Amino acid sequence: MRLELWQIDGGTIDLEDRDAKVRAIHRIDGTEIEIRFRVTEKQMKGLPASLRQRIELRAADRILSLAAFLDV
């Protein structure tokens, strides 16, 4: 069973500027990080629930990318 170390705590999207901000908390030590990125026009299309899922998945991908970069 895979242990989920990060929990998405919340996210916001500026619909005009297409800026997204997602906050994640590490389940073991309580570290909080905030991931900010720009959403493309193509990603903005669809239902709000699917948009939320897409930005959370993109934030999770950024966490994994950062973790891989920092893992020496």
What is the topology?
Blueprint lengths: L5 E9 L4 E8 L5 E7 L2 H4 L3 H23 L2
Antiparallel strand pairs: 1-2, 2-3
Shape: elongated
Radius of gyration: 13 Å
- List the helices and strands in order: EEEHH
How many structural units, i.e. domains? 1
**Strand residue percentage:** 25-35%
Q: On the 0-100 scale, what is the average pLDDT?
A: 84
- Ranges where pLDDT stays below 50 over 5 or more residues in a row are none
Structural class estimated from helices and strands: alpha+beta
Question: Can you characterise this structure?
Answer:
- The protein is an alpha+beta fold and 72 residues long.
- It has 2 helices and 3 strands; from the N terminus they run βββαα.
- The chain has one domain (6-70).
- 38% of the residues lie in helices and 33% in strands.
- 8% of the residues are buried.
- The radius of gyration is 13 Å and the shape is elongated.
- The protein has helices spanning 41-44, 48-70; strands spanning 6-14, 19-26, 32-38.
Structure, briefly:
With 72 residues, the chain is of the alpha+beta class.
